[in-house]
From TrEMBL:
PANTHER family: FATTY ACID SYNTHASE, INACTIVE PHENOLPHTHIOCEROL SYNTHESIS POLYKETIDE SYNTHASE TYPE I PKS1-RELATED. It comes from Streptomyces avermitilis. This is Carrier domain-containing protein. GO terms for molecular function: fatty acid synthase activity; phosphopantetheine binding. InterPro entries: ACP-like_sf, Ketoacyl_synth_N, KR_dom, NAD(P)-bd_dom_sf, PKS_KR, PKS_NRPS_Biosynth_Enz, PKS_PP-bd, PP-bd_ACP.
């Protein structure tokens, strides 16, 4: 019988005609669309295929004793995935629905699957290859079904079943931020601690080659090396698309491709390079300068023009000074006025942080997960940051620590002469 589970009325009619004693909900739409390119209708459609159908089945069968209520969730709801915002949210909902059903005494099992081989949602060919590249080799269906049978027999509520290539998976997964999700998995810990494969001989040869070149040629050689590997990782035929001064984020690098570029450069330089390389040095020019310094050290400066530094005897002059502090302090003058007047900078919680202050408050200091304070010293305009003023892309700005972004604001005000870095 065919029916759209997201259509509640159609599903009700079907269940009335064909009573069931078990449910296996395996529907899903795996569109890969970045949030910035999605629209409400497309997002809702991707979510509805899983979430709405599962909700309707749960509600329409609420009064019926079922042998099983199985929902095929996805690892995307556990560890996420680029272009899978709606799909990840829908699968996380299935996991929560399973817990909800169990809490109300009803049977439920949500399995967050990795990729299936031989025609799963990841498909074949390019789909399976992408999974392998991410460290998630597709599972044989027989193995997956065996795991499902075991989960049902054990009375599990929600679990993840996936095959991991930890050396490929864990580095990109933790490259932009630490995660405790796999902290108790020994294989993941060993993979994180293992050094990237390096090429000591290749690195020595490259360093020797660079030592014989002028500084400008050293930079050009390393920029070409970075651009060549970056283009290969991104799938370009040549280096034209990788402009030396363009941010890696804008070129399309993500955590996976960042680690792949690191590995290629490690093999060519013999250096122990961090997985955060493309985030620490955000374009080919900056990365090449870092590599030159690491490869050559003081030798890199040996062939540069020698300049005699003039010794000055003038006193140091403070040409600019700025600060941001609680209580609306936006300048040294404000701070001095606050100190001389004996002002109080303690105030209520900001209303633009997404904090439910009433829900968080508890007068007992020993209550876990609560705060017994209702006031504090806050920077109320911490969210105002003009990333474009500093040449920072929107994607980089979102990933910045708010305190780091806030430190740039006084600098922008002093260097540009603008009254504020508040976005127009």
């Amino acid at each position: 019988m065919a029916c759209d589970a997201a259509d509640r009325d159609a599903l009700r009619a079907l269940l009335a005609q064909h009573p069931v004693n078990a449910v296996v909900h395996a529907a899903g739409v795996g569109d890969h669309v970045m949030i910035e390119d999605s629209d409400p209708a497309g997002f809702a459609g991707s979510v509805a295929a899983k979430a709405a159908g599962a909700t309707h089945l749960d509600e329409l069968l609420a009064g019926q004793e079922l042998d099983a209520f199985v929902m095929f969730s996805s690892g995307a709801g556990i560890w996420g995935g680029a272009g899978q915002g709606a799909y990840s949210a829908a699968n996380a909902y299935l996991d929560a629905l399973a817990e909800h059903r169990r809490a109300h005494g009803r049977t439920a099992l949500a399995v967050s699957w990795g990729g299936w081989a031989e025609g799963g949602m990841a498909g074949v060919g390019d789909g399976e290859e992408m999974l392998r590249r991410r460290g998630l080799p597709p599972m044989r269906p027989a193995l997956a079904i065996s795991a499902l049978q075991q989960a049902l027999a054990d009375g599990e509520t929600a679990l993840t079943v996936a095959d991991f290539d930890w050396e490929r998976f864990i580095g990109p997964f933790t490259v932009t931020r630490p995660s405790a999700l796999f902290s108790d998995v020994p294989e993941a810990g060993r993979a994180l601690e293992a050094p990237a494969p390096g090429g000591a001989e290749a690195g020595n040869a490259l360093a020797a080659k660079l030592t014989g070149l002028p500084a400008a040629e050293q930079d050009r050689t390393l920029v070409d090396l970075v651009r060549t590997h970056a283009a290969a990782v991104l799938g370009h035929d040549g280096t034209a698309a990788v402009e030396p001064g363009r941010a890696f984020n804008d070129l399309g690098f993500d955590s996976l491709s960042a680690v792949e570029l690191r590995n290629k450069l490690t093999a060519d330089t013999g250096l122990k390079l961090p997985t955060t390389l493309v985030f620490d040095y955000p374009n080919a020019t900056a990365l090449a300068r870092f590599l030159r310094a690491e490869l050559l050290g003081s030798r890199g400066a040996a062939r540069q023009e020698q300049r005699t530094a003039a010794v000055g005897d003038e006193p140091i002059a403070i040409v600019a000074m700025s600060c941001r502090l609680p209580g609306g302090v936006g300048s040294p003058e404000d701070l001095w006025q606050l100190v001389t007047s004996g002002g109080d900078v303690i105030s209520g919680f900001p209303e633009d942080r997404g904090w439910n202050v009433e829900a968080l408050y508890d007068p007992d200091p020993g209550t876990p997960g609560k705060t017994y304070a209702r006031d504090g010293g806050f920077l109320y305009d911490a969210g105002d940051f003009d990333a474009a003023l500093f040449g920072i892309s929107p994607r980089e700005a979102l990933a910045m620590d708010p305190s780091s972004a806030y430190c740039w604001r006084p600098r922008g005000k002093r260097s540009s002469g603008r009254a504020s870095t508040r976005p127009p």
